[in-house]
Design a protein that fits this description.
Helix 3 links the parallel strand 1 and strand 2. By secondary structure, the protein is of the alpha/beta class. It folds into two domains: 171 residues, 3-Layer(aba) Sandwich (D-Maltodextrin-Binding Protein, domain 2); 103 residues, 3-Layer(aba) Sandwich (D-Maltodextrin-Binding Protein, domain 2), CATH 3.40.190. It is built from twelve helices and 13 strands. The two termini are 19 Å apart. Belongs to the phosphate/phosphite/phosphonate binding protein family. This is ABC-type phosphonate transport system, periplasmic component. InterPro entries: PhnD. Keywords: Signal.
């Protein structure tokens, strides 16, 4: 579980580290004419773009350049964009971040969100992988799903693939493909929910947030689905930067998220349905590297 209280130390350290860049490094840095942003597609892409728009507006004011959205086609496409230099700033899933970091150690994870909750004044900085079924189905236990059809999200999704394959499979003692009769990828968490609601699959692994948000917005009712399995806490999605960007640009971007104690523009917080941004570092995601 992430410790919100200690998050602001990494923020100070990260800013100090950026300040210490050498003149030679600064001379070779990149300062694009437009900031290119992308994100792993967790739900409907246009809906997510609309929710992020106040953040884009705030970034544009702070850095003095337009912010372009690079529409994501998959988790892997966003990673490739960062590696190829066609994406400058991104919101990744934890597993996607680890994959990108492994290929480019210079990628900087600097912020995540504390999401609104009813029982935590500081907000949750973690979520869970959950296995859900329709509430009107006959499935009451994990064992009752053996030999059934299950939906995953994307091969690079933390809660929708990585945790199920490594942690859930350890619980059952079998790979997913041997425990279930068929394993399919839906491409996004909301699509997995849709497939389940339409009876196209018997069960689905999704993030707990992807169930909570549509329930809170009234899109679905919580009693439509039943949770049969919940993982341990997972750190939330990191916002990341390419290290090749010039240090002054990186400082301005990070400040948009983390100045004022992470309380950005009120419209940004409301649109994203979060309490605030909190600093994170690479070490916060070490728990996922330790998976078998």
């Amino acid at each position: 579980m992430l410790n919100v209280g200690r998050f602001f130390q990494p923020f100070i350290i990260s800013i100090a580290a950026l300040t210490c860049l050498s003149i030679a490094q600064a001379a070779e840095c990149e300062k694009p004419g437009r900031l290119r942003f992308s994100f792993v597609p967790q739900n409907d892409v246009q809906t997510e773009v609309d929710a992020l728009q106040p953040l884009f507006d705030e970034l544009q004011l702070a850095i003095g350049m337009p912010v372009d959205v690079v529409a994501p086609s998959s988790y892997g496409a966003v990673i490739e964009g960062l590696l190829a230099g066609t994406v400058d700033l991104a919101r990744l899933g934890p597993a996607a971040y680890i994959s990108a970091k492994k290929q480019d150690p210079g990628i900087i994870a600097f912020a995540t969100v504390a999401r609104k909750t009813s029982d935590r004044s500081t907000g949750d900085t973690f979520y869970h992988s959950i296995l859900i079924v329709r509430n009107d189905s006959t499935y009451q236990t994990i064992e009752s799903l053996r030999g059934k059809k299950v939906a995953l999200v994307d091969p690079d999704s933390t809660s929708g693939a990585l945790i199920p394959r490594h942690v859930f499979s350890k619980k059952t003692g079998l790979p997913l493909e041997k425990y279930f009769s068929q394993v399919v990828y839906s491409g996004a968490h909301d699509q997995s929910l849709l497939n389940l609601s339409k009876n196209r699959v018997d069960a689905a692994f999704i993030s707990s947030t992807s169930l909570t948000i549509p329930v809170e917005s009234g899109q679905i009712k919580r009693d439509e689905f039943r949770t049969l399995w919940t993982s341990k806490p997972i750190p939330r999605n990191p916002f990341v930067l390419r290290n090749q960007l010039c240090s002054d640009l990186k400082r301005k971007i990070i400040a948009v998220f983390l100045e004022r104690g992470g309380n950005a523009n009120k419209n940004v917080m409301q649109s994203l349905n979060v309490m605030r941004f909190v600093p994170i570092s690479d070490q916060d995601y070490q728990i996922l590297r330790n998976l078998p």
